[in-house]
Specification:
The structure holds two protein chains of two kinds. Chain A is mainly α. Chain A has helices at residues 13-24, 26-37, 51-72, 80-89, 94-122, 130-152, 157-170, 177-185, 192-224, 253-278, 311-319, 322-342, 347-366, 369-382, 387-390, 403-424, 429-447, 449-452; strands at 40-42, 250-252. Chain A has a two-stranded antiparallel ribbon with strand order 1-2. Chain B is an alpha+beta fold. Chain B has two domains: 2-217, Cytochrome Bc1 Complex, Chain D, domain 2 (Orthogonal Bundle), CATH 1.10.760; 225-252. A two-stranded antiparallel ribbon of chain B has the order 1-2. A two-stranded antiparallel sheet of chain B has the order 3-4. The chains are: A mainly alpha, B alpha+beta.
Chain lengths: 470, 252
């Protein structure tokens, strides 16, 4: 047990109260010190560093509005759609809560994508922050599951057919696929059983996992300390410390970054509210028009598109046609040839490569392209987990990398946006070709990173962070 | 790099261009904005109850919500309720759905949200409805005797024909890139209706305005509240900005 602290009888009532609690619940005080007042963050955070706290804000918005929606929503295929309209019309301020939740879903992805981009350009996944990054990628993956299941709940046409299309993807997995899809749906088609289990996952199972991961993400971050736009460690062995052993280039998170983040929150809420109050459908991207028609298992919509935040991956899925498989096989052959000719492997090692390549090609030719499309779609997310080991550049931050590296990241973002756009459109021959090139670029960007990330003229890294007083 | 971006951009333009050309149907007219015009909305509600509610329902719309567009409960009871319908009930179709299916080959869709669900690349759902209700023409090859330019082979006959009269679309054949194409040139009034063309457009505008209002009765409240929320957030942002500056001014 911690030492019981006595306090002077002349202390103020507030001090006595604080001491009373501190003697009985010291964890609260040390938590506040470890994560707020005593957590030193680099001084030089810029615009990109708003999105972590904003993601937390959106998470809270989603949980609170979700609780109120659950009070009125009915997870029953016969009345689900009507219950959402009941919320929109008869529940006082129900329309506001619903729009906050539907806009919050899209805002979550915008904020998280920008947060991830920050990590990419400043090398925030590099040693010793690998686990911070991996927890973050897992949050992203779980968030996708959460959004996908939540989208079924309004039980509109897009809810229904979107779920139908995505769950059917699982049936493309050889051997276990059909049974797996059946297990997910709980029925042979998306039905009341599916709605009930998705509701259960959406309101409790997945949010619990999400919250646990968010805690792990922040604890791990605070253990290793935040990275910054210069990629220079402020708590390393060579970093300057003041007489109290605090980093000179750091500043207590509270009050400096709390007050900073409040400003970020204010600006974010302006944009968020502008959408909620003036354009809650956002041109059919945040609320798809077709989803205002109740689900009808007999009427397939002419064009089924997932919500915008899934469309880059959806594009990659559609890009994998049986024609595209030949391009992928060529890539595998090229990689294998390179490994055999250029690496210093033993003969046995080279033989293993040859056998593995032949086996891979045999599988690629024999299994339906749809399965490989599913694999590509999943791989597009999974590959992010490996960033800490793919990036071999001698510096962390984009600031000190060669100019053309910035171009590569710019192109990566452009490619991601093009893929996202194509995923919202009905399939077309030209769109298919572009998405195939985009898919190859997306994976090439990551898989070739161990080579290209070391090339070029790197700028010298400063010893200390660069910070100009405001 | 720049070249690659340009090529990508050009290819995108080409892809979307091909998309637009592939779309069917005609260009939607812009619907008048009547969402804040209570008199127009009330007239639209009357048209809706008299002409649409016979076959279509508005299953999520309660009659007493019409108080939002300036009608008193007594007015609603006297003018818009039929039979034993109570004022707190939702709008049900007069027709038996099974009978409707027999007559029209399709169940008339619920209209509560039609103005939202029909939005698309061509414009808002209101634009679509405004175009659709004004592009009916006689077509003896159809079972109902009617066809529609915005919704080809539509199952619904022209319910408002007594108001509009009978019209016929005029086409020209033009040669575009060597292909013979039918190009819509305008309308010819075959027989007059109870309303002049101008009055008819106005009536349809009222009806569509009502449908638009009904699809989200809270929309005017939403915008009104939104203005205050943004004003508050504007002030809050200014304070947060200065507060942040005050804390950071001594950080070097």
């Amino acid at each position: 047990m911690a030492e019981f602290k006595e306090i002077s009888p002349n202390a103020t009532a507030t001090e006595k109260l604080v001491n009373w609690f501190d003697n009985r619940f010291p964890s609260a005080g040390s938590f506040y010190k470890d994560h707020m007042s005593g957590y030193y963050a680099p001084k030089n955070f810029n615009f990109w560093y708003f999105f972590g706290s904003l993601a937390l804000l959106v998470l809270v918005i989603q949980i609170v509005t979700g609780i109120f929606l659950t009070m009125h929503y009915k997870p029953d295929a016969a009345v689900a759609f009507a219950s959402v309209e009941y919320i929109m019309r008869d529940v006082p301020w129900g329309w506001l809560v619903r729009y906050m939740h539907s806009t919050g879903a899209s805002a979550f992805f915008i904020v998280v994508y920008l947060h991830m981009f920050k990590g990419l350009i400043y090398g925030s996944y590099r040693k010793p922050r690998e686990l911070v990054w991996i927890f973050g990628c897992t949050i992203f993956l779980v968030l996708m599951a959460e959004a996908f299941m939540g989208y079924l709940l309004p039980w509109g046409q897009m809810s229904y057919w979107g779920a139908q299309v995505i769950v059917n993807l699982f049936s493309a997995i050889p051997f276990i696929g059909p049974d797996l899809a059946l297990l997910i749906r709980g029925d042979y088609v998306v039905s009341d059983a599916t709605l009930n289990r998705f509701f259960s996952f959406h309101v409790i199972a997945v949010p619990l996992v999400l919250l646990g991961l968010v805690v792990a993400h922040i604890l791990a971050l605070h253990d290793v300390g935040s990275n910054n736009p210069d990629g220079v460690e402020i708590k390393g062995p060579n970093a300057p410390m003041d007489e109290n052993g605090k980093p000179v280039d750091g500043i207590p998170f509270h009050p400096y970054y709390t007050v900073h983040d409040i400003f970020g929150v204010a600006v974010f809420l302006m944009v968020f509210s502008a959408i909620i109050f003036f354009a809650p459908e956002l041109g059919g991207y945040f609320l798809e028009y077709n989803n205002f028609i109740p689900a009808d298992s007999l009427k397939t919509p002419a064009h089924i598109a997932p919500v915008w935040y899934f469309t880059p991956y959806y594009s990659m899925l559609r890009a994998i046609t049986s024609e595209m498989m030949y391009a992928l096989i060529a890539c595998v052959l090229l990689a294998a040839g390179f490994a055999i000719l250029k690496s210093r492997m033993s003969v046995i090692g080279k033989a293993v490569v040859v056998v593995a390549t032949l086996a891979a090609i045999a599988l690629m030719l024999s299994i339906d392209a749809k399965f490989w499309g599913v694999l590509v779609m999943g791989g597009a997310v999974i590959i992010l987990f490996f960033m800490p080991w793919l990036d071999k550049s001698p510096v962390k931050s984009i600031r000190y990398r060669p100019g053309w590296h910035k171009g590569m990241y710019g192109l990566f973002v452009l490619n991601f946006i093009v893929l996202a756009y194509l995923g919202t459109q009905p399939p077309s021959p030209v769109g298919e070709r572009i998405s195939q090139i985009g898919t190859l670029f997306y994976f090439g960007f990551f898989l070739l990173m161990p080579w290209w990330s070391r090339l070029g003229d790197f700028k010298p890294m400063p010893d200390r962070i660069t910070f100009a007083a405001h | 790099m720049k070249k690659l971006i340009l090529i990508l951009a050009a290819a995108m333009g080409f892809a979307t261009g091909a998309q637009a050309a592939g779309g069917e149907g005609i260009v939607w007219d812009k619907a008048p904005n009547n969402i804040n015009d209570l008199q127009s909305l009330q007239h639209g509600a009357k048209l809706f109850v008299n002409y649409c509610l016979n076959c279509h329902s508005a299953a999520f719309m309660r009659f007493n919500r019409l108080t939002d567009i300036g009608l008193s409960e007594q007015q609603i009871k006297d003018n818009l309720l039929f039979g034993t319908t109570k004022i707190g009930e939702t709008m049900k179709a007069a027709i038996d759905p099974r009978q409707a299916k027999e007559w029209f080959g399709a169940n008339p869709p619920d209209l509560t949200l039609i103005a939202r669900s029909r939005s698309g690349h061509g414009g808002t759902g209101a634009d679509y409805l405004y175009t659709y209700l004004r592009t009916y023409y006689r077509d003896p090859t159809k079972a109902t005797g009617w066809n529609n330019l915005a919704f080809p082979n539509v199952a619904m006959p022209h319910v408002l024909w007594e108001l509009q009269g009978v019209r016929e679309p005029q086409f020209d054949t033009e040669s575009v890139h060597g292909h013979e194409m039918k190009v819509f040139k305008g309308w010819k009034q075959v027989s007059p209706g109870a309303l002049t063309p101008l009055q008819y457009d106005q009536a349809v505008g009222d009806l569509v305005g009502y449908l638009q209002w009904m699809s989200e009765p809270a929309q005017s409240t939403r915008v009104r509240v939104g203005v205050w929320v943004l004003l508050f957030l504007g002030a809050f942002t200014a304070i947060a900005w200065r507060l942040n500056a005050a804390f950071w001014k001594d950080v070097h």
